[in-house]
């Protein structure tokens, strides 16, 4: 009988010092038929990464020896581009910024649902290597497309998931006219509706503009009456 090649399994490293959490993560990820290794300290994690290839690292921020950020910086400084999903109880903007600067690809705040973790892992595994750090900018506005966090003049803007989608779209097309049809097709993903989404889109845009172009801020989202919208500096 010919030998059957073993399927090439996804290799994941879980770095978490809390034993129960670590074990349940390992167990859950193995149910995905992934090959899962685990480490309880930062040094152990680094040793493992230097020894074996991994496709993804789930990395806890708070570790007993060197913390997650330190581990991440160590890996990135050695040119290791393995996607890293950072687990953190720290959800303030400042912490997120530190994590991003260190090269994390995504974040998940504790406590989280396992299904959410799995979805984030899958998304990172689908992403081609080297595309980490999805920052879109215009003037003092920036959107981290991985963490889905928007910041204007250093202040986080509270956005709904739909608003993040719209803002990302506008930023990708910045300086160009974005029509309602484009938003309907690419953001709302509805092309076969009987009724137009124009009103929905207009209301959504009004809300988004109020949040992004708050009091005193330079206007970045412009309405082109009867045409659509444009994101960019006034002068452009
Ligand atoms: Ca921990």
Explain the overall architecture.
- There is one protein chain.
- The chain is α/β, with parallel strands linked by helices.
- It has 2 domains: 11-126, Rossmann fold (3-Layer(aba) Sandwich); 135-231, Orthogonal Bundle (Arc Repressor Mutant, subunit A), CATH 1.10.10.10.
- Helix content is 37%, strand content 21%.
- It contains 8 helices and 12 strands.
- The protein has helices at 19-30, 42-51, 68-77, 93-101, 114-126, 161-172, 180-186, 198-212; strands spanning 11-15, 35-39, 56-60, 84-88, 106-109, 135-138, 141-144, 149-152, 155-157, 177-179, 221-224, 228-231.
- The strands form 3 sheets. Strands 2-1-3-4-5 form a 5-stranded parallel β-sheet, sandwiched between helices.
- Strand 1, helix 1 and strand 2 form a beta-alpha-beta unit.
- The longest helix is centred in the C-terminal third of the chain and has 15 residues, at 198-212.
- It is elongated and about 60 Å long.
- Residues 1-8 and 129-133 have low confidence and may be disordered.
- Calcium ion is lined by residues 17-18, 60, 62-63.
- The site of calcium ion has 5 residues, from loops.
Structural class: alpha/beta
Distance between the first and last residues' Cα: 69 Å
- In angstroms, what is the radius of gyration? 21 Å
Average per-residue pLDDT, rounded, comes to 84
Task: Determine the number of helices (DSSP H or I, runs of at least 4 residues).
Answer: 8
Strand order within the widest beta sheet: 2-1-3-4-5
Record field, number of beta strands: 12
Proportion of residues in helical segments = 25-40%
CATH class of the largest domain: Alpha Beta
Bound molecules: calcium ion
Q: What name goes with the CATH superfamily of the largest domain?
A: Response regulator
Beta-strand content bin: 15-25%
User: How many domain modules?
Assistant: 2
Show unreliable segments: 1-8, 129-133
Provide the succession of SSEs.
Answer: EHEHEHEHEHEEEEHEHHEE
Main pleated sheet: 5 strands, parallel
Q: How does CATH name the architecture of the largest domain?
A: 3-Layer(aba) Sandwich
- CATH fold-level topology of the largest domain: Rossmann fold
Envelope shape: elongated
